[in-house]
Design brief:
Blueprint: H1 8-41, H2 48-83
Helix pairs in contact: 1-2
């Protein structure tokens, strides 16, 4: 899927991708930390409800600004490329 224009559709896609990516990263980090504690102490501290809720909150809190930032940078790049076109 390649979106050609920098508009609201691209903004929504970028926010969704960033949120889902960061939720996955946070959930994986919680799981890795639980595994480290398990190998060191012998107790597995990964709680699905608490860790999933935490990962969703962290993914939304970090993914929305990241998606907006990436969209803003692509908007600036598109405007810069539009202005630098040679006139014939």
């Amino acid at each position: 899927m390649k979106i050609q224009t920098v508009g609201a559709k691209l903004l929504a896609v970028l926010i969704c991708y960033c949120v889902l990516t960061l939720i996955s990263i946070a959930l994986l980090a919680c799981l890795c930390a639980a595994l480290l504690v398990y190998f060191k102490n012998g107790t597995f501290i990964f709680g699905w409800k608490g860790d999933v809720v935490y990962s969703i909150k962290a993914g939304i809190a970090a993914g929305v600004p990241t998606g907006i930032g990436v969209w803003f940078m692509s908007l600036i790049k598109a405007r810069k490329e539009k202005q630098s076109l040679p006139k014939e």
